[in-house]
Design brief:
130 residues, Helix Hairpins, two-stranded antiparallel sheet
């Protein structure tokens, strides 16, 4: 391969690596948010379970609190808990795994490209060291 073709291939691989890494970070942030929602719903459920059935419970709607039966609040929290677990599983099994495979593929492409052009590897190292 010519020197210019190797540089072009490297720039393409570099762009794909940046894109894949960004998407992977976004998926991790979404998973972290859903885990927080999951924990909040779980803790709320645990507190509601400790209350007697005839206790007045209130639901927060913005800055307002509305009187709601305990059973309705528990059902809502259970649904939030289930929804967040489903979302976490979907993010883990589809997006995260796919992006991890993409990242590994890009890294393989890079490791295959560098031995073909030692000059390119030296240029990359000199740019990253500075």
């Amino acid at each position: 391969m010519s020197d210019e073709a190797n540089r072009t291939a490297f720039m393409e691989i570099k762009g794909r690596m940046i894109e894949t890494t960004g998407k992977l970070k976004q998926v991790h942030n979404q998973m972290r948010n859903k885990e927080g929602e999951n924990k909040c719903a779980y803790l709320t459920l645990e507190e509601l379970r400790q209350l007697p059935d005839d206790t007045n419970t209130y639901k927060s709607i913005g800055r307002t609190f509305v009187l709601e039966p305990k059973s309705i609040l528990m059902n809502e929290q259970e649904q939030k808990f289930k929804d967040s677990e489903t979302a976490i599983a979907a993010l883990q099994h589809t997006s995260n795994e796919y992006l991890e495979k993409q990242k590994a593929e890009v890294e393989n492409n890079l490791t295959e490209l560098l031995p073909q052009d030692p000059g390119l590897a030296q240029q990359i190292m000199s740019v990253t060291v500075m």
